[in-house]
Amino acid sequence: MEKGRRDSVFFIKSSSQGKRTCVAGQSRCWKHLSEREQLVSQIHPAQPVAVTLVTAPACHFCDEAHTALGELAADYLLDITEVAIDSPEGKSLTAIHRPMMSPLVLIDGEYFSAGRLPRRKLTKLLETRGARRATVEGVR
What is the pLDDT, as a whole number, of residue 45? Predict the structure, then answer.
């Protein structure tokens, strides 16, 4: 591990992964990105993450997931599709993924969760994919 100082904040660089972690524990925070990485992220904005929510009628976890995804959509680029479990597409997705509970949540077509939506896990995934909406001087 290489220790260094950048922008008056200490960071640790892991040589095996090339990943920088600041003292606060934030991986790849804006202060620690190189100028090239900052420019690339501005030129090539993050692509929206496709979230498919397969819901059942009278499902309180489905309602909570719908609300949580709406809140996350304010901060992250999400393309949310809600599918009823009794629709042809919903039946197909249910047959493929075999969820134990509703809602079934797919991220970019891949199984993510079933039942109560794990918000922290989803937020962490969105952060690693770089899906945060760009802010200009603290304004969205």
Answer: 56
